[in-house]
């Protein structure tokens, strides 16, 4: 009897049945893959923070600095047709996660020389709009040894205030002024805003050497390491504009004579002041009386500092007999006035707002070569390339100025 042999051949019915089974299996497998992918994606938590910052333009900043016509022309096209406006909401989202914010914006990677560590600088920032510009200003001047006081205008938007609070929350050496003012243009509250920050800065544990006041449309022309080197050369002197008043400016404060027979001088709101000077000012009865008198004057911030720096005996005194120190002689701020362009400095390549030039990218070389420490005004809605290229050139100058073997890195 022969053993049974199973045949490998299938009938037509079996073939169809097998094919349908395979088809169903494939369909089920595809469905599984599809829905398991969805499940997997749903199980991964969505990012808590939008890490977008400011838009970076494809531009050669070295060519801009060297005034290469093709690249300058490209920056003009961007300015006229392709500006991407800063999204303030992104800053709020980013500062909701401080460790991520510090990492993304490079605060964790800041390295400084011992010279910088031993020479902290204080900043009084009186600001009211453009939160990303304020953040970029802090980042461009940043050293973990410095201390930053932010005074935001009480009239500022809720979003702006929240953004400033976010910066103060995430950066350990940044804080909001303890007293905030409703700042009025050319009014006493503009002066008071800086004074509030100065008072707070004196209470800080950071024993800063000099204090510099800035507004939201200022930008540095020197990296911190270079600024420290230049401030040291002042040797306790102060740096600010102080001039004999013109007839026009005398009209701002001629109603009643100042107390203590103080001789009046005029200048600007911008200053670089030694710690000793601020300590003296904060405790002087003469300065206190003079400050009270300025409440009845127009734009007191433009004669308060210029006058008290000339008081006999103040630390870093500028003698009354000393010739005028003009805005071009003082390194505190480089400002282009429309009515002086073509005579004292080149014409503005940006736009004018109330006779002040909002700088264009074509002025980067001139700005960095003039010798001033800060410039005003910048607006990324006017020319974003100007700010972007200044950031890049300042980073280059910082690297050139620092020696690698003596750096101390601070990680957040």
UniProtKB/TrEMBL annotation:
InterPro entries: Glyco_trans_14 (IPR003406). Keywords: Glycoprotein, Glycosyltransferase, Membrane, Signal-anchor, Transferase, Transmembrane, Transmembrane helix. It comes from the Eukaryota. It is found in: Golgi apparatus membrane. Its main location: Golgi. It is a single-pass type II membrane protein. Pathway: Protein modification; protein glycosylation. Pfam families: Branch. One of its GO terms (molecular function) is acetylglucosaminyltransferase activity. The keyword Transferase applies. Belongs to the glycosyltransferase 14 family. This is Beta-1,3-galactosyl-O-glycosyl-glycoprotein beta-1,6-N-acetylglucosaminyltransferase 4-like. It comes from Betta splendens (Siamese fighting fish).
């Amino acid at each position: 009897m022969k053993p049974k042999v199973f045949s490998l051949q299938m009938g037509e019915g079996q073939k169809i049945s097998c094919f349908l089974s395979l088809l169903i299996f494939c369909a089920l497998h595809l469905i599984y893959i599809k829905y398991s992918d969805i499940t997997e994606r749903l199980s991964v938590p969505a990012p808590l923070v939008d890490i977008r910052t400011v838009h970076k333009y494809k531009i050669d900043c070295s060519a801009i600095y060297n005034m290469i016509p093709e690249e300058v022309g490209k920056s003009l096209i961007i300015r006229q047709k392709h500006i991407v406006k800063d999204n303030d909401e992104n800053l709020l989202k980013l500062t909701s996660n401080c460790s991520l914010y510090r990492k993304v914006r490079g605060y964790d990677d800041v390295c400084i020389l011992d010279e910088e560590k031993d020479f902290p600088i204080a900043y009084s920032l009186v600001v009211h709009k453009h939160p990303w510009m304020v953040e970029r200003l802090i980042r461009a001047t940043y050293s973990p040894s410095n201390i930053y006081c932010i005074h935001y205008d009480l009239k500022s938007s809720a979003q702006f205030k929240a953004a400033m609070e976010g910066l103060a929350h995430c950066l350990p050496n940044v804080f909001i002024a303890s007293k905030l003012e409703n700042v009025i243009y050319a009014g006493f509250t503009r002066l008071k805003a800086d004074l509030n920050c100065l008072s707070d800065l004196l209470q800080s544990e950071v024993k800063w050497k000099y204090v510099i006041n800035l507004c939201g449309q200022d930008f540095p022309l020197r990296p911190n390491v270079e600024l420290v080197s230049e401030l040291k050369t002042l040797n306790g002197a102060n740096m600010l504009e102080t001039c004999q008043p013109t007839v026009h400016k005398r009209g701002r404060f001629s109603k009643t004579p100042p107390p203590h027979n103080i001789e009046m001088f005029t200048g600007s709101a911008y200053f670089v002041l030694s710690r000793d000077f601020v300590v003296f000012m904060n405790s002087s009865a003469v300065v206190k009386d003079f400050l009270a008198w300025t409440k009845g004057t127009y734009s007191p911030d433009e004669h308060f500092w210029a006058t008290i720096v000339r008081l006999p005996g103040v630390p870093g005194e500028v003698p009354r007999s000393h010739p005028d120190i003009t805005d071009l002689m003082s390194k505190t701020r480089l400002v282009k006035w429309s009515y002086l362009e073509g005579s004292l400095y080149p014409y503005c390549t940006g736009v004018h707002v109330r006779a002040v030039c909002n700088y264009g990218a074509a002025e980067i070389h001139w700005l960095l070569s003039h010798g001033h420490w800060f410039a005003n005004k910048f607006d990324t809605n006017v020319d974003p390339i100007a700010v972007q290229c200044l950031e890049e050139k300042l980073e280059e100058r910082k690297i050139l100025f620092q020696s690698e073997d003596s750096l101390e890195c601070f990680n957040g």
